[in-house]
Amino acid sequence: MRLASLAFAVGILVVAGTHSAPAQKKYGPGVTDTEIKLGQTMPYSGPASGLSIVGRVEAAYFKMLNAKGGVNGRKIDLLSVDDAFSPSKTVEQTRSLVEGQEVLATFSSMGSSPNLAAAKYLNNAKVPQLFVVAGSPKLLDSVNQPWTTTFYATLALEAKLLALYLRQSNPNARMGILYSTDEAGKAYLEGLKAGLGDKASTMLVKEISFDLAAPTIDSEILQLQAAKVDTLFLGIALPKFGAQGIRKVSELGWKPQLVLSQGTQGIDGVLRPAGLENAVGAVTSMFQKMPDDPQWANDPAMTEYAAFMKQWAPNENASDQLALVGYSAAQLMVEVIKRCGEELTRENLLEKATSIGNYQLPLFIPGIKINVTSQDRSPWKQTQMARFNGKTWELFGGIVSAQVD
Known about the structure:
By secondary structure, the chain is α/β, with parallel strands linked by helices. Helix content is 40%, strand content 20%.
């Protein structure tokens, strides 16, 4: 009888062992059963304060998500602090978020120079620096900065794609570029030359840089006009300088082909202040749908976005392209957190953030998909050309692709 009872008990244990156990919880800093703490730096003050709408929309998105129960029962606490777009202050604030607030990771911090300044500290501390809103190619260094990923394709790739279009459409153009002296501006110049290739020496006739602390860019525009430039690329990341440049070109009665960076294509933030009529015929490249574009009027993703902005961010401009950036970046962060399941460690968060294949964000133009690996950190490599008709951007030419150098 005792042998039979023993055999029966062993049998029960064997059967029980065949059932999968509940997922083992593993938590890194900033994570509990009810909360996930993320950190972020934004220029809520200073010359780039217009970019901070990204952080406000992301905070609103997480607030909406938390009201619905969060992610797997955990609410996301986004600690978004001001760095005034000053690299030294970015490092100071980032250190405070990591050591003082003990965040799990930083998410979607703004700007190339600020993020590069913080990258060394975060990588040494092995803290994920995820989906930064910056386009410097230096942030894609998976060898020396393995804990860093970007939300943007590099500004160099953006400029390269525009240059490929210009080289094909007008190989005899006399091009000029106006770019800022920071990392973003240098990336635009680098990408433009790469896209023009062996035509750079003949097509690019004038390069002018300006300091972000300058009150205006009027004198630089005058120098470009004096060089008899007929195709002007505004390689500018800050909307206010884009508006200044377009308006000054018009005041001069100058009629170059305007080529606008993604930072200067916003209708409400740039083109309307510059005068919509002054931007007619300008070309740009796009990766996301635009709220004021009639072709997306009945798009389900755009309808959902509009409803979100109305309820959760009513004081923000829903037509601002940076608002869409914040919304999409937040969606991508949520997707990565979901993929982590119950293993919410810094190591697993980074692994999931660098293992994204063909992921279509709802507000991205169909065909432009997120692909990130541990070696290739450029999130997308496609764009869609568009031309401004005085009211909205009209897409043309289909999806254009290029490789990251």
